[in-house]
Structures are given as structure tokens and as C-alpha cells.
């Protein structure tokens, strides 16, 4: 995009963008706000201009308008700029309109069709991770998985993902019940290592630990607090899926990361 002087009225600011007419000054202004958003901290004028790819003088004009409107605040005379209260209100209003489960569920069919694995979505409940959406692949398999299935925390990819991406205070009661029922207790260090690996890869996998002969890979859909709103899982008979670097597992993680970013996640 070529930078222009936006002060000359509609004739000077209308542009063709993606086949439809748009307001070029608005698009450039969005680059200023996006640069500030991605920085995650207050920035000086020159840094914002560089990140937005426009001149410092034009950047200053946008910032001055945004300060007047409350989209941006400035720390003292000539100080750094940060997002203001109106920007916060816009963000909160946008998040209030989001339905994380519905948005994530829209990924099930494309994932199943692209990978050949059955895809399901689970949410957290008082009893743990429960399957609430299911899209079967073109490759059938025999198994007890169905809507309403409760997935164990330690032995399922879905449960492990919730364990890694929910606060310990949330998962602790279910984890304690599961450990008591199993009659064996993994050490805190073992659980910590498991969680650390899942968070680094954004993928949890298992190979036949819940349903014999079925492998699974799971990834979280995170909210603005970087906590799991729901978990998407691929499951099938190909044991290679238990490798976190399997192409289907990586595709799953990428789609979940994209949806998470839409929900305001930064992790």
C-alpha cells in the first residue's frame, strides 16, 4: 500500500481494496493500532511509525486523533503511546459477542475432511472433559466414543490438554478423583513434565490408552486469559497420530492457534 496524504477529502482517500471500495486512511490508521496492539507495551512515536510502515509525521496525526477519541493514551507530554479506554471497551465488546464453542466447532468438518481422522470438541464440566461435538471421518472405526463421553484427564489427549491449559485449582478435584479410582498416583514432577511438554508443543497425544487401537491428538482453543475454552481432538486407527509432529497434529495445532488468536489469546 502506498502512503498518501489523507487530509484532502473523500476523493483523496477512497481506494480499491480486494475488489471493493474502501477508505484508505482508515486502513492506514488500522496499521497504527495494530502495531500498538502487537507490541504489548507503550511505544514511542518512531517505533509505532516503523512498525506501521508509515512516516512519523503521518503517524503523529493519527495518534493525535486517537488520543482525542480515547482510543490511545499518551504518557505525559511527548511520552510513549498506549491503547486507551475506548480501545479496551471495543475489545471487551467484541469478546462478549464471541461464542468460542461455536467458532471452534466450525473447524471440525474441515479438519476431519483434510486429515481423514474423526474430530471432536470437548468442554470442561464439573465431571471433567466432556465431548459435545463430533464429526466422523470417512474412515470408520469401532469405538465407544460418542457425544457425552467423559474423557479422563491423564489417559486421554483431550484430558491432558485441559490439564495443561486450565488452572490447577479447576482441574485438581477431577484429577484427585481419577487418581484415587486408578489406585496409583503419578508424582507432581511427572505431571509437571507432562504439562510443560504439552504447553510447548500445543499438542497432547496418546496411543491407545483410552480406546485400544485408537490414537489421538488434541490442541486447545484459548481465550484472552490463555485458558482453554474448549479442546479439539483428532482420533483414528493410525498410530502415527500419536507423534506430536504428525502432519495432522500440526494442522490441528495451527487451526486451534488461529481460533485462539481470534478470541484474544496471546500464548
What this model shows, in words?
- The N terminus is likely disordered.
- With 267 residues, this protein is α+β, with helices and mostly antiparallel strands.
- The protein has eleven helices and ten strands.
- It is 46% helix and 20% strand.
Low-pLDDT windows of residues: 1-19
- How many helices? 11
The radius of gyration computed from the alpha-carbon positions, rounded to a whole number of angstroms, is 23 Å
In one word, what is the shape? elongated
Strand order, main sheet: write it out. 7-6-5-10-9-8
Distance between the termini: 30 Å
What amount of the residues lies in strands?
A: 15-25%
Described by strand count, sense and barrel closure, the largest sheet is: 6 strands, antiparallel
Structural class assignment: alpha+beta
Order of helices and strands: HEEHHHEEHHHEEEHHHEEEH
Whole-number mean pLDDT: 84
Number of strands: 10
| Helix coverage percent | 40-55%
